[in-house]
Amino acid sequence: MCNAQESSPHARMLYAISEECQRQDGKWGEQNHGDLYWLGIVTEELGELAQAIIQNRPYKDTQQELLHLAAVCVSWGECRLRHGGPAVALTSPQVSQFHVSR
User: Fold this and answer.
1) Neighbour-count burial of 20, counting CB atoms closer than 10 A to its CB (0-12 exposed, 13-18 middle, 19+ buried)
2) Whole domain around residue 38: which residue ranges?
3) Would residue 68 count as lying in a domain?
């Protein structure tokens, strides 16, 4: 457990990100997606953070969006580690909804 008054900001953020990862895992279960799908999730979370900042929402709301984004990035990295490279084959059904134009 993190004692907020005795820990550095770095330690407090890492703890908060870990807590958010656990919350998301509890809600969604272990996530295993292709990189393009993860990119879509991260982009959505980044958009929500940007919207909170642009709308000048309270610090607590903006911080929560930042934690969501960080936790999703950690989950993406964990997925890649579990699969030893690209998260899931690009033929994954989840990936088919994302197109990248070149």
Assistant:
1) buried
2) 9-97
3) yes
